[in-house]
Amino acid sequence: MSDHNTSHAPATPSNDPVENVVHVVPVVLPVVGGIMMFLLAFIAVMMA
After folding, report:
1. What are phi and psi of 28, to 5 degrees?
2. DSSP alpha helices (H): ranges in 1-48?
3. Is the alpha carbon torsion for 9, 11, 12, 16 positive or negative?
4. CA 7 to CA 9: how far, in whole Å?
5. pLDDT on residue 22
6. Is 10 strand, coil or helix?
7. Which range has the worst mean pLDDT, 2-6, 24-28, 41-45?
8. What percentage of residues in the chain have a pLDDT greater than 90?
9. Is 4 exposed, middle or buried (0-12, 13-18, 19+ CB in 10 A)?
10. Residue 39 gets which letter from DSSP?
């Protein structure tokens, strides 16, 4: 009677932004941590 679309697959694949960032986190966190430690030490030395 009516034309039903029987395809259950999504029209476009899901593009999760979290999945795009997860593989970079193990590199970014130590780098940012090192920069923060350097900046805090620099501030402590300048104020002393």
Report:
1. -70, -40
2. 17-22, 25-47
3. negative
4. 6
5. 92
6. coil
7. 2-6
8. 54
9. exposed
10. H
User: What is the C-alpha to C-alpha distance for residues 19 and 44, in angstroms, rounded to an integer?
Assistant: 38
Query: Measured in whole angstroms, how far is the alpha carbon of residue 45 from the centre of its chain?
Result: 33
Angle made by CA atoms 14, 18, 23, in degrees to the nearest 5: 110
Which amino acid makes up residue 14? Answer: S
Give me the mean pLDDT over the 7-19 stretch.
77
- Distance set, CA 4 to CA 1, 11, 16, 35 (Å): 9, 15, 29, 58
Report the alpha-carbon distance of residue 38 to residue 21 in Å, rounded.
Answer: 25
Of 40, 35, 38, nearest to 48 by C-alpha is 40
